[in-house]
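Please, structure for the following, as tokens.
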Amino acid sequence: MNAVLRHAQRLEKMTAAHLDEVMTIENAAYPFPWTRGNFIDSLASGYPAQVLFDSDRRGHVIGYFVAMEGVDELHLLNLTVAPEAQSQGHGRFMLDALVDLCRPCRALQLWLEVRQSNPRAHALYLRYGFRDVGVRRGYYPAAAGRREDALVMSLDLSGGGA
């Protein structure tokens, strides 16, 4: 049985009340996490943002995403699953919800960046249908004051291929 089908998942709009749990996950998942201010600014700007709950976790947040609308596109800024809940289909579940959000805003493309050092996320996006379209040099902060390149990926939502 698929892991996604074993657990009841529920998404709801992210609010400031969720940020303590979101920050716990963000800090556990990344060596260079978003700040609380990044999330507050995203919420204040009205960016599409949702939190994922799993009933097996008694209503605790286990994941979230934040996106930004553009002209005919949506840009995924952050999609994170708590480390202990990864590899259970939650990322794909949130991607499905994100694609559903693209329809009302008539987005034709969904864009994202992913660290080159994050092969699990890169593989998830490739399996989902995203394609590599470029590299942003020095996009992410890295250890010892260095910078890491980001892979730019795109998902065609127009139905015509890109």
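The helical segments are 3-6, 19-29, 36-44, 90-102, 119-128. The beta strands are 9-13, 49-54, 61-70, 73-81, 109-115, 131-141, 147-156.
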